[in-house]
């Protein structure tokens, strides 16, 4: 009878240990998912800022090309005179 009681206690300990480990694992998974979510948001924000910066730079480059074209047209007119 003592052996059966020892087995029951051993099984109880294993069940408690398993429950504790599964709860710790869930907490770890939740923290990991939250961390991934935060990192994703930060990455998306950085990409948004990068896109805005690139669009601004492209607009500036286009303006500069227009200025260069106008200047070249002026030079061309002067040379044709």
Describe the protein's architecture and organization.
This protein has 81 residues and is mostly helical. The protein is 98% helix and 0% strand. The protein is built from one helix and no strands. The chain starts with a helix and ends with a helix.
Task: Please give the structural blueprint.
Layout: H1 2-80
Quick rundown:
By secondary structure, this protein is mainly α. It has one helix at residues 2-80.
Which labels suit this protein?
81 residues; mainly alpha; 1 helix
The amount of helix comes to over 70%
Radius of gyration (CA) equals 35 Å
Percentage of residues in DSSP E strands: under 5%
Shape: rod-shaped
* Count of runs of 4 or more consecutive helical residues: 1
Question: How many DSSP-defined strands?
Answer: 0
Q: Which residues form runs of ≥5 with pLDDT under 50? A: none
H and E order: H
Mean pLDDT: 88
Structural class based on helices, strands and sheet pairing: mainly alpha
Spatial gap, N to C terminus:
119 Å
The major β-sheet equals: none
């Amino acid at each position: 009878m003592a052996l059966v009681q020892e087995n029951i206690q051993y099984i109880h300990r294993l069940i408690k240990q398993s429950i504790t480990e599964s709860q710790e694992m869930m907490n770890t998974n939740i923290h990991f998912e939250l961390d991934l979510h935060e990192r994703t948001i930060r990455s998306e924000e950085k990409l948004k800022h990068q896109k805005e910066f690139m669009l601004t730079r492209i607009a500036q480059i286009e303006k500069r090309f227009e200025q260069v074209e106008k200047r070249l047209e002026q030079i061309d007119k002067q040379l044709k005179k």
